[in-house]
């Protein structure tokens, strides 16, 4: 496909996403229906769509509208590309720009340049203070690809050498002993020997740092109370902890046995009934707004409403209230979100401590793209 044909595909996909279709599902549907598109084309269309969703407001201003054509026109102007080369009308290229389209568009205002909805920008301005603008700017960029090395199977250097044999370059990161940042060949990861043999897992740097801060080595009994696909459970099992996994929606743990087998981890899944017992560590990796991960799921920031945020705050409080009964005296309750909102993080913990005074703060980590990768929060509470 030519760059112009890829842009034409992105226009169609963006129109459907703006009409309410989830971005990921729409891209998969396009790829399945477009047999002529090679892997390079699929990657380029995906990048163009996701880059544009990350910068939706500023590109809409530059292109003079929120429809797919205006957004791609805004993308051309944002990147300093000549729109006439894309909107050529030749072959599978988009039809030429009309005079009205050529005349439309202006530089984004300061608010539009944050590429956040106003109500979210206002909240984050209050919550992040002086870091707001640098964090907002960072959230307009693509996120790096991070790997967690499974220490139970390989050293970081051995995993790196294995990846290199499959044409994947990755750099160790000093902020976490398990972290590798992929610098080339990311699209080969799933087919690589290192992945197949359980030497590595895809996991962002921030949750790796947060998991590494949990005192959970051999002999520590950990309950992952919101296990989902098991990213945190696997990270803790790799550090030698004995991990039990539970999720209110057991179907969300469907991938965990396969991932655990690949990693050589022995994780007990509680599928029927609720977990019981006194655990040394109970991890609550709660559902959240996901505001820290909007570089990876940029359509989500345009969908989130204030009501959604209120609803998720209530679920988080309820999960914390349920989890307290499972922590042994002297044990640790760990609360994690991938959110930048204070209401989901520090304020949620402050009201938890009002309700459960037998717990006390031990430590906390707040991570933003300025100091790690995804926005992330972890609070470690002692019972
Ligand atoms: C952020 S995801 C967990 C991601 C997972 N820990 C990982 O690392 O891959 C939150 C999970 O909490 C689960 N959940 C929602 N409500 C819950 C509740 N009341 N109790 C326990 N888990 C709940 C969801 O089903 C979802 O799988």
Automatic annotation (TrEMBL):
> Would the keyword Cell inner membrane turn up in this protein's UniProt record?
no
Query: Keyword Electron transport on this protein?
Result: no
- Pfam family membership, one: RsmF-B_ferredox
Q: Which PANTHER family match?
A: NOP2 YEAST -RELATED NOL1/NOP2/FMU SUN DOMAIN-CONTAINING, RIBOSOMAL RNA SMALL SUBUNIT METHYLTRANSFERASE B-RELATED
The record lists the lineage as: Bacteria, Pseudomonadati, Pseudomonadota, Alphaproteobacteria, Rhodobacterales
- Which GO molecular-function terms appear in the entry? RNA binding; RNA methyltransferase activity
- The protein's name: SAM-dependent methlyltransferase
PROSITE patterns cross-referenced by the UniProt entry? SAM_MT_RSMB_NOP (PS51686)
Ranges for the SAM-dependent MTase RsmB/NOP-type domain? Answer: 135-383
- Give me any GO biological process, just one: RNA methylation
Annotated catalytic residues? 338 (nucleophile)
Gene3D superfamilies for this protein: Vaccinia Virus protein VP39
Keywords from the named record? Methyltransferase, RNA-binding, S-adenosyl-L-methionine, Transferase
Family as reported in the entry's similarity comment: Belongs to the class I-like SAM-binding methyltransferase superfamily. RsmB/NOP family.
């Amino acid at each position: 496909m030519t760059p112009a044909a890829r842009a034409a595909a992105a226009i169609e996909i963006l129109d459907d996403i703006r009409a309410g279709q989830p971005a990921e599902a729409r891209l998969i549907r396009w790829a399945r229906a477009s047999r002529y598109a090679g892997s390079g084309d699929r990657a380029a269309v995906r990048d163009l769509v996701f880059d544009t969703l990350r910068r939706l407001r500023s590109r809409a201003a530059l292109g003079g509208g929120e429809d797919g054509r205006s957004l791609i026109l805004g993308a051309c102007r944002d990147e300093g590309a000549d729109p006439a080369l894309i909107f050529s009308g030749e072959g599978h290229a988009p039809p030429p720009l009309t005079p009205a389209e050529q005349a439309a568009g202006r530089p984004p205002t300061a608010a539009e340049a944050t590429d956040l909805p106003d109500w979210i920008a206002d909240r984050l301005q209050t919550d992040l203070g002086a870091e707001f603008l640098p964090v907002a700017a960072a959230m307009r960029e693509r996120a790096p690809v991070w790997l967690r090395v499974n220490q139970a199977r390989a050293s970081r250097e051995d995993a790196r050498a294995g990846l290199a044999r499959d044409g994947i370059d990755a750099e160790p990161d000093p902020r976490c002993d398990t972290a590798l940042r992929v610098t080339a060949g990311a699209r080969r990861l799933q087919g690589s020997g290192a992945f197949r043999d359980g030497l590595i897992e895809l996991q962002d740097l921030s949750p790796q740092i947060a998991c590494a801060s949990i005192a959970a080595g051999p002999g520590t009994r950990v309950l992952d109370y919101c296990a989902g696909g098991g990213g945190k459970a696997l990270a803790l099992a790799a550090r030698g902890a004995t991990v039990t996994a539970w999720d209110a929606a057991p179907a969300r743990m469907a991938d965990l046995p396969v991932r655990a087998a690949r990693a050589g981890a022995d994780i007990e899944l509680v599928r029927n009934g609720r977990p019981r017992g006194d655990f040394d560590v109970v991890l609550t990796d709660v559902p959240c707004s996901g505001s820290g991960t909007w570089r990876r799921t940029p359509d989500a920031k345009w969908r989130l409403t204030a009501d959604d945020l209120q609803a998720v705050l209530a679920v988080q409080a309820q999960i914390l209230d349920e989890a307290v009964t499972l922590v042994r005296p002297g044990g640790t309750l760990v609360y994690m979100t991938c959110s930048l909102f204070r209401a989901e993080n520090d304020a949620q913990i402050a009201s938890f401590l009002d309700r459960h005074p037998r717990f006390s703060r031990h430590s906390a980590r707040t991570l933003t793209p300025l100091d790690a990768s995804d926005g992330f929060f972890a609070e470690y509470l002692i019972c």
